[in-house]
Amino acid sequence: MVLFAAAFDEPQDCPILSAESIATMFALPETIAPDEYKRGEQYYACGWSVRDFGSGRRNTWHTGSLPGCYTFMARWSNGVNCVVLFNKRGPGFAEIDPLLWKAVKSVAAWPDHGSSAICQ
Fold first, then answer.
1. Regions of the chain where pLDDT drops below 50
2. Cα–Cα distance measured from residue 58 to residue 70, given in angstroms and rounded to the nearest whole number
3. How far is CA 61 from CA 30, 35, 75, 106, 113, in A?
């Protein structure tokens, strides 16, 4: 799932969708006028929650659950992608986001190898 999320990091090189499709997937919905949108507010795009900070920086995430499980997938504006799978569903799972973000910000330097090296 992390490789899926990371596939959208470089839209021109994405093996799944075209750059145009990725732009559409994260675009401000037609129900929100661009001049009414305030940078940093959350909106729901095509299957993704989005928080656009401008200058190409945005956080996107998707959550899902079925009886007995919960998932959280985030793509943060700093280039870090994160996926968490829980084998239980209940209240309070959204609280994982700020905890993960705090952990990500505490890392001084990330490894210098590509995602394919991690998943071999």
1. 120
2. 23
3. 20, 23, 6, 20, 24
